[in-house]
Design goal:
Length: about 500
């Protein structure tokens, strides 16, 4: 039921006082809704003033039939509207409901699709450009761009096998228990094909766009641009980095960039101090991973991660996919633009199940006591905004040493005391040097974990996991409770 309190044209609503004499002006909105997330055209309301005029003396039933026939005859593939008769201010209006189309692109039957395919952007109906038209065509055929053959690139079995090993290692490193590690199945060439990372042309395997993005990544737009700004606008750069290479590495690098530039506050819980980033780091990583996973790789723009004094913004090219709208996405429903990348990221534990990302980001921010994140489409892109916990960003904790229990008292050993055990376990000098850096950053009053190692070494998640595994293997650290999952302290050695 249409209510006047919600009047005002939006992305999904158009007002028409009457059917224009030139039907194309009316039909372009119908086509745009079919090619986007669906919408309503309400006939009998003036768009500029929102004055309700109604349809006058015309028979609503005859007019409905005429409009249905016009839309059906003029558009291809055929569009079947759902038209209802409603009364507002004692005047009769027609509400023309257009569902998101399944056989995109839709366009005018008497014109070519290059000139008469329309999409909905910021509340207006606009011609689809060549890139968007290509995406609509793939969508209509239920084809994922990243699963298409990377034309001109030859199959390299050694590189494919190396990718299999890398994916397996990342998946294992992400596990927290030995049981989880054992459960990880080997990545094989057959699975790369099943995922869509490889494709078969005849009897021969060929790399897809996903294979390229996960290996050499020759796509010049498939990058993440990160920037720290002074203040709340884009006026002054403090730091900026651009990350390319395999997209799973980009996620780690961008995530670490954010951790380096957001503050860490502290909370006192009983006898213990808990160090906490001002943003929930799981939501930060999820936001970046989702941007890389769901972006349009046909678009020549990059993913951008921008940090301001009061917020973090992650922007990605491409609007929500497959007729999905923001409110529906918040419920956990998902349509996947890049199916092969989604399979790969899920296997490597970079993301969980499809559709869970946005609800999880919302929940983490709520648990953190932060304002709700904002999800919005802008132009032909998508942006997520997380708000920083500025009030706690510079929090200082006094008398910490006195508040720490005896179980957390300062370790009296020096790092030299640990070297013997590391060398006895045949740990390489490179690993030992990295562990030394970790030890030098370590505060015995504050248990540490993988995220801390990533920050201290400025390294990837997989490298940090390897460091932690070595420390566990050599029994140099012990797990502690009450500080969150995966928190450890260095053990006190008996001299």
């Amino acid at each position: 039921m249409v209510s006047k309190e919600f009047f005002g044209e939006t992305r999904n609503i158009e007002f028409k006082r009457e059917i224009p004499g030139k039907h194309e002006k009316f039909l372009k909105d119908i086509i745009a809704f079919s090619n986007s997330t669906g919408g309503q055209v309400i006939l009998g309301i003036e768009d500029e003033t929102c004055i309700v005029y109604g349809i006058g003396e015309q028979s609503p039933f005859k007019l409905s039939d005429a409009i249905s026939n016009m839309i059906s005859d003029a558009c291809t593939p055929q569009i079947e509207p759902d038209i209802s008769i409603q009364t507002i201010e004692d005047k009769t209006v027609l509400v023309i409901d257009i569902a998101p189309g399944k056989f995109r692109p839709y366009y005018l039957a008497n014109k070519d699709k290059e000139t008469s395919s329309y999409i909905r952007i910021n509340g207006t109906s606009r011609p689809a450009d060549r890139r968007k038209l290509q995406e609509l065509e793939l969508e209509g055929q239920n084809i994922s761009y990243d699963c298409l053959q990377d034309i001109g690139r030859e199959y390299d079995e050694d590189k494919a096998l190396k990718l299999c090993k890398t994916m397996k290692k990342i998946a294992v490193d992400a596990c927290e228990t030995e049981e989880e590690k054992i459960a990880i199945k080997d990545m094989t060439l057959a699975k790369l094909h099943d995922f869509g990372i490889l494709c078969m042309i005849g009897r021969n395997p060929y790399p897809t766009h996903a294979f390229d993005l996960l290996t050499d990544n020759m796509n010049k737009a498939a990058k993440i641009q990160c920037a720290l700004f002074k203040g709340k606008t884009r006026d002054v750069f403090i730091d900026r980095k651009e990350f390319d290479g395999p997209i799973y590495e980009q996620v780690d690098n961008a995530y670490n960039f954010v951790l380096r530039h957001i503050n860490m506050g502290a909370q006192i819980d009983g006898e213990y101090r808990k160090d906490m980033y001002e943003l929930p780091i799981s939501a930060v990583r999820e936001t970046i991973a989702n941007a890389v996973l769901h972006r349009s790789y046909l678009d020549r723009s990059c993913v951008q991660v921008c940090i301001y004094d009061d917020r973090m913004e992650v922007s990605s090219p491409g609007m929500l996919y497959g007729g999905l709208d923001i409110e529906t996405a918040k419920t956990g429903k998902s349509t996947c633009r890049n199916e092969a990348i989604a399979e790969a990221f899920h296997y490597m534990h970079i993301v969980e199940a499809w559709g869970t990302g946005i609800p999880r980001i919302i929940n983490r921010c709520s648990e953190y006591g932060l304002p709700n994140p904002i999800f919005e489409e802008f132009g032909d892109g998508f942006k997520v905004t997380l708000f920083r916990k500025v009030s706690n960003a510079q929090e200082k904790v006094s008398n910490t040493q006195e508040k720490v229990s005896n179980t957390q008292e300062k370790v009296s050993n020096t790092f030299d005391d640990y070297i013997f055990l590391l060398k006895e376990a045949d740990i390489t000098d490179t690993f030992i040097n990295n562990i030394r850096i970790v030890y030098e950053h370590y505060d015995p009053c504050i248990p540490f974990g993988q995220a801390n190692v990533m920050e201290w070494l400025n390294c990837s998640k997989s490298k940090a996991t390897n460091i932690m595994n070595v420390l566990k293997k050599t029994n140099l650290i012990q797990k502690v409770k009450g500080f969150g999952a995966g928190k450890y302290i260095f053990v006190e050695l008996n001299n």
